[in-house]
Design brief:
Elements lengths: L8 E4 L5 H12 L3 E6 L3 H14 L4 E5 L8 H12 L4 E4 L14 H29 L2 E5 L12 H21 L4 E7 L13 H9 L9 H13 L8 E4 L8
Parallel strand pairs: 1-2, 1-4, 2-3, 4-5, 5-6, 6-7
């Protein structure tokens, strides 16, 4: 008698747009069921969810939670688990990114960036650990190459991502042997938007200092996430830089 094994389930925070959406698409294409977390990007999240469910019925759900509110961490995990009864993967992708020059610093920016980029991944991981342990699952955090090499005028952001690097290593020890915890440190994948937008000259300068002489694509990050889920059974506590060699010249 053949016993059908249900697909693995992955929760991706900040899954509606940009790198988060590409991660969700890659994991879904690989056969995982996906829980698409979003906050503001409801239209994009629902559209992505519909595409996935047309591709494979009952394989995706979209759920809205504000990660700035710590009361939402456990409910988010519990709702994700209710979707298919288990949770195998947590991808802490949601993040905030903006300038905080020391000449114009304020405590609210500190709270916002640290809460979004460090506190939320910590407590989401804690809330998910009970369920991930049952599945011998994994956690993947999205850090940044600037966690190691600071970016001028983005000190709080860099601090938050440096903390996420240490969190990755700490959780890898704390949650072993049943849960693997790793991180991906992207280089230049998608050019920043809004107030962080770069000029053509600034973008070219970054490319010129990248060994592979081009910026990366969201697919590069998504493929690395899939590798850490499916093909890295003996890997934990590691930070994988996907940066085209950018850190070689930093």
């Amino acid at each position: 008698m053949n016993i059908l094994k249900s697909p693995k389930v992955a929760l991706i925070t900040g899954a509606a747009r940009r790198i988060g959406a590409e991660i969700a698409n890659t994991l879904h294409t690989a056969g995982l069921n996906v829980v698409l977390h979003y906050n503001y990007s409801e239209t994009e999240a629902n559209r992505l969810c519909s595409i996935f469910n047309e591709r494979r019925p009952n394989s995706a759900v979209a759920i809205k939670f504000c990660l700035a509110d710590s009361d939402n961490y456990t409910p988010l995990i519990k709702q994700a688990v209710r979707s298919w009864g288990h949770l195998d993967v947590l991808v802490n992708n949601a993040s905030r990114f903006y300038k905080t020059p020391l000449t114009n610093i304020d405590e609210s920016s500190w709270d916002d960036l640290i809460n979004s980029n460090l506190k939320a991944p910590f407590f989401l991981s804690h809330a998910a650990s009970e369920y991930l342990s049952k599945q011998k699952g994994c956690i993947i955090n999205l850090t940044d190459i600037h966690a190691e090499k600071p970016l001028r005028d983005y000190s709080i952001y860099c601090v938050s991502k440096a903390g996420l690097v240490m969190l990755t290593k700490s959780l890898a020890k704390e949650l072993a042997p049943n849960i693997r915890v790793n991180a991906i440190a992207p280089g230049t994948m998608i050019w920043p938007e809004g107030d962080n937008e770069l000029t053509e000259q600034q973008m070219q300068k970054i490319i010129d200092k990248t060994a592979l002489q081009r910026h990366g694509m969201p697919e590069d990050i998504a493929k690395a996430v899939l590798f850490l889920i499916k093909d890295a059974d003996y890997v934990t506590g590691q930070i994988l830089a996907i940066d085209g060699g950018r850190t070689l010249s930093m």
